[in-house]
Design goal:
The protein has about 400 residues and is an alpha+beta fold. Helices cover about 20% and strands about 25% of the residues. The strands form five sheets. The chain has a six-stranded mixed β-sheet with strand order 3-18-17-19-15-16.
Length: about 400
């Protein structure tokens, strides 16, 4: 009983007074565990009173020593346009034999077997989509195929009592092409001719050989003349991201001079017509991310390029640099410069924790600097290695 009583009497006694006037609380520690307990309390007080770290200093995981890196500062998963199903962006605009503005048609009308009962006329489809036939007048044919145009002309001729049961044949002798320029991150930049009824973003990309590996997820379609109709899709993706953005309008007719497509969000919607007019320009975003830098206790400190369309995590970067050069290395800082901020973020990560936790193995962004820090443990390990080398590598001189 006396021994137990003595242990109780010598146990650490801690008394914390309430903070007054904004001062830090006073701590009084007594007993043999005073040193260890005081250290723990000081660390806890640093965490609670936020006086032991800079405002831009975060931890990759939850920690009693500081604040966890907010989600808004974490790098989001990279979108890869190479994985997009572009067929979902192609509008259903009909076959290649659909009559369009500027096409030249040969119209044959036969009321009997004699040559005098037959007529052949070459006409061009006007801007309003009509053709002007002698005696019959204006007939709207744009947007339909040749056999449908034949029925329209026959119906109009009978309606005007010009013929009782005529035979009408329509042949497309010349089909106007849209000249479209494709620039940016495509395999073959240039100017291409597309049928007006199949002149959309997908056809333009296909004509240019498809997207390059460094293509971004945004495409801008421009019409210098400002005659485009905006895309029919108003789809809004995850997080309120619009599939298309109208960047400029022209006049009161609803026509626009340009619009911007988010390929990822547009493919999710699977709807909308992304038309490119004659004289239009398709600009594909080109991604050129800044490299990351790996420094400190790694075997090959250097700058390393980020692979486009693939996430690069902390352990990936250290692996690129040949791994850590000291077995005791654990403390890592990731320095990240946020847009619009003067001071960079300082993100502290544990190397051992990163091996076991996806939360600690953070995703790196363009321009990040990874520094594997020197610590008392790594200094000791270096000293032991020097001693070991000195003993094993020594030579008897006498």
């Amino acid at each position: 009983m006396n021994t137990r009583a003595n242990n109780v009497q010598h146990a650490a006694a801690v008394r914390v007074s309430e903070p007054q006037g904004g001062r830090v609380a006073h701590v009084r520690v007594q007993g043999p565990a005073a040193g260890r307990t005081a250290t723990v309390l000081l660390l806890l007080m640093c965490a609670f009173f936020s006086g032991c770290q800079e405002s831009n200093h975060y931890y990759a995981e939850d920690s009693i020593f500081g604040r966890r890196l907010p989600d808004r500062y974490r790098v989001k998963r990279q979108a890869n346009p190479q994985e997009v199903d572009l067929s979902k962006l192609s509008g259903a605009m009909g076959g290649s034999q659909v009559i369009g503005v500027g096409d030249v048609l040969e119209v044959q009308i036969a009321a009997g077997l004699n040559e005098s009962d037959q007529s052949t006329t070459a006409v061009r489809v006007q801007q309003d989509g009509t053709i002007n036939l002698q005696d019959i007048g204006l007939v709207e044919v744009a947007g339909v195929e040749a056999h449908a145009a034949e029925a329209l002309i026959r119906s109009e001729a009978v309606k005007q009592d010009l013929y009782r049961n005529p035979t009408v044949t329509v042949i497309i002798t010349f089909q106007k092409k849209n000249r479209v320029q494709v620039l940016g991150a495509v395999k073959n930049q240039g100017t291409y001719e597309l049928p007006p009824n199949a002149s959309d973003v997908v056809a333009a990309l296909a004509a240019a050989g498809g997207l390059k590996e460094n293509a971004g997820q945004f495409i801008e379609v421009r019409d210098p003349a400002g005659r485009m109709r905006p895309p029919s899709s108003e789809f809004v993706g995850e997080g309120g991201t619009p599939a298309t953005t109208i960047s400029a309008t022209s006049g009161e007719s609803g026509l626009v001079s340009s619009y911007r497509i988010d390929l990822i969000e547009a493919a999710k919607s699977g709807e909308g017509r992304y038309v490119v007019p004659d004289g239009g320009i398709v600009m594909v975003e080109q991604r050129d991310p800044a490299p990351i830098f790996v420094q400190g206790l790694v075997r090959t400190p250097n700058r390393y390029d980020l692979e486009i369309g693939k996430d690069t995590r902390l352990l990936d970067a250290i692996s690129m640099a040949g791994g850590v050069s000291n077995q005791m290395a654990d403390k890592i800082f990731v320095i990240r410069q946020e847009a619009g901020k003067q001071e960079p973020l300082l993100i502290q990560v544990s190397y051992r924790r990163a091996k076991r936790s996806a939360d600690a193995n953070i995703t790196l962004g363009p321009g990040d600097v990874v520094v594997v820090e020197q610590t008392p443990g790594t200094v000791l390990m270096d000293a032991l290695n020097i001693v070991r080398f000195g003993v094993t590598g020594s030579t008897t001189l006498f």
